[in-house]
Automatic annotation (TrEMBL):
Family of this protein: Belongs to the class-I aminoacyl-tRNA synthetase family.
Keywords recorded for this protein, A-Z: Aminoacyl-tRNA synthetase, ATP-binding, Ligase, Nucleotide-binding, Protein biosynthesis
Highest taxon in the source lineage: Bacteria
Leading EC class: ligase
Transmembrane segments: none
Pfam families in the record: tRNA-synt_1b
Record's protein name: Tryptophan--tRNA ligase
CDD domains hit by this protein: TrpRS_core (cd00806)
Cited SUPFAM superfamilies: Nucleotidylyl transferase
EC number: 6.1.1.2
Any one Gene Ontology molecular-function term assigned to this protein's record: tryptophan-tRNA ligase activity
Length: 339
């Protein structure tokens, strides 16, 4: 489902693994939509610290400290804790208990066939040394989604199989207990897709060293744009240039609202007569205008980390109350309401 076609008054669950500050790829892929969603829907934003442990158990402090960093990014871009419930995953034991029950509704073979899981295992070169928690991530994600009876889950196109498997578990549970306790969810996939890194070789990722953080300084923005991959065959200004695969134009498509202006730049670049530095200068101006106020708001919120954590505590309490109600219904349906 495209974000432009969402019916009103939906329950939306989304979030991020707190393994580092958020970057421009997150902004394009999800943060812009979340700002809109919070005025139209019931939105839960999860800091998935427990899930981050599936491949960060050896660097637990990184996960802990980045809970605050990601929360600061949320606030800086305009996510309002009065409109969106922001919570910390590990502080909801109800999610762990739901995961335990759902594990009985899926086989190891089915988990291994999940295309998203298979690709993530390949990228991390786990081979057969796969942490069990990592392999079972689709089950954990099902607990996250169903705890809030979310009807929509914003994800990248590569994550759609995760929602499909979550819905399989929902259907199996409901069939097993003979009641419609859990709710299926639909994926919401951004129209633009995944933003490439500034090197043009992979998705934007801090671990790959090709990301531009939302908190980047003006000098860091300028340096990143100058390093961006364009067309290696566009050696002289008069040479015809290729737009497809040109990272600068990909970013202009993502961040320049004047579509006609970008189309005109593309036409000139293809004909020849437009230099790389000209298009990079346009892009830098747009990124500096976008990130400067975000950076300033972030710095203000960062002055009072105690207040930010208090906000997270309030959101976590609210989210836990919702998850506890769902868990109560699940246990009753399973006949686990002994007393």
């Amino acid at each position: 489902m495209n974000s432009n076609a969402i019916p009103p008054n939906q329950i939306i669950l989304t979030g991020d693994r707190p393994t580092g500050p958020l970057h421009l790829g997150h902004y394009v892929g999800s943060l812009k939509n979340r700002i809109t969603f919070q005025d139209q829907h019931t939105q839960f934003l999860m800091l998935a610290d427990a899930q981050a442990f599936t491949d960060n158990m050896g660097d637990r402090d990184k996960v802990r400290r980045n809970v605050l960093e990601v929360a600061l990014d949320y606030l800086a871009v305009g996510i309002d804790p009065a409109k969106s419930t922001i919570f910390i995953q590990s502080q909801l034991p109800e999610l762990t208990e739901l995961t335990f029950y759902y594990l009985n509704l899926v086989t190891v073979a089915r988990l291994e066939r999940n295309p998203t899981v298979k690709e993530e295992i390949r990228l991390r070169d786990f081979q057969r040394d796969i942490p069990a928690g990592f392999l079972a991530y689709p089950v954990s994600q099902t607990a996250d989604i169903t705890a809030f009876k979310a009807t929509l889950v914003p994800v990248g196109a590569d994550q759609a199989p995760m929602i499909e498997q979550s819905n399989e578990i929902v259907r199996k549970f409901n069939t097993n207990v003979g009641q419609d306790i859990l709710v299926e969810a639909a994926p919401v996939i951004p129209a633009l897709g995944r933003l490439p890194g500034i090197d043009g070789k992979a998705k934007m990722s801090k671990s790959l060293g090709n990301a531009l953080a939302l908190s980047a300084s003006a000098d860091e923005v300028s340096k990143a744009v100058k390093m961006m991959y364009t067309d290696p065959n566009h050696l002289r200004v008069d040479d015809p240039g290729q737009v497809e695969g040109n990272v600068v134009f990909t970013y202009l498509d993502a961040f320049e609202p004047d579509i006609a202006f970008v189309d005109d730049l593309k036409a000139k670049y293809r004909r020849g007569g437009l230099g790389d530095m000209v298009i990079k200068r346009h892009l830098e101006q747009r990124l500096q205008a976008l990130l400067a106020p975000i950076r300033e708001r972030r710095a203000e919120f960062a002055k009072d980390p105690v207040e930010v954590m208090r906000m997270l505590a309030q959101g976590t309490d609210k989210a836990r109350a919702v998850a506890a109600q769902t868990l109560s219904e699940v246990k009753a349906a399973l006949g686990l309401n002994y007393f």
